């Protein structure tokens, strides 16, 4: 008995080895989580490239906006015109670079408005009284039942098509979706212990929403923001293709496709290049969103 009692007590100067490997797996898991995948890097490069072109594209364009650069319409690829020419002989590379500020800029502004307003309203609904939550939820349920394109067509028919109006229409069309996502996240977080402790301390609802809830739902909200951006790019491009989006002499990528649709039978680059620009922007954003979703480890607890 004495021998067993002595063996259970560590000798002075000896180190207990049982506690050392407790956290050895965590750094490697975090290290793996910090590394972005190859597809995520491709998406980041595509999105970053078009964001830069939206800012610096007009300065990098080889020809001025609307300048007749060639006597030939629907010209093919050449050293002077790498993306060919449009139906009037204008350089397509210049038109795509200049049009990036409308496609990317309008979509980015509308996505910021939609996600920002929807997230704020979702937080208000989650932390407010039940009747406020019910009233806001039923209102946005009714609004989200209207297809975005139908809502946009009705609004444009009533108020006309201008750049500020297009931004407002696109934002209003996607605020309900952002509201539902943010409210769902906030309602789940409101049931967690640290939020209940904050309420027991007597913290105000604004403090709880801003300090306790919003930081722990920011990653899913950012992922949803990327999806809103993609949806708005496609919505605005579709409206421009119908002639209801950005109006001449300005042109976004959807307008460029519509203007040069007559060159489709000739396989003109003027139709292909704006379509590729829209595809690379939307696919790049989707790749980036998927990578960030895995990178941040969504769905692994409310403390994220």
UniProtKB/TrEMBL annotation:
Annotated stretches, region: Disordered: 1-27
Membrane-spanning intervals of the chain: 38-61, 102-129, 150-175, 181-200, 221-246, 266-289
Family annotation (Pfam families): BPD_transp_1
Main location: membrane
Entry keyword set: Cell membrane, DNA-directed RNA polymerase, Membrane, Transcription, Transmembrane, Transmembrane helix, Transport
Subcellular location, record wording: Cell membrane
InterPro entries associated with the record: BP-dependent_transpt_permease, MetI-like, MetI-like_sf
A Gene Ontology BP annotation from the UniProt entry: transmembrane transport
Membrane topology according to the record: Multi-pass membrane protein
GO (cellular component) term, any one: DNA-directed RNA polymerase complex
Domain ABC transmembrane type-1, first and last residues per copy: 100-289
Gene3D superfamilies on file: MetI-like
Keyword field contains DNA-binding: no
Highest taxon above the source species: Bacteria
PANTHER family, per the entry: OLIGOPEPTIDE TRANSPORT SYSTEM PERMEASE PROTEIN APPC, PEPTIDE ABC TRANSPORTER PERMEASE PROTEIN
Family, per entry: Belongs to the binding-protein-dependent transport system permease family.
Name the record gives this protein: DNA-directed RNA polymerase subunit alpha
Gene source species: Trinickia dabaoshanensis
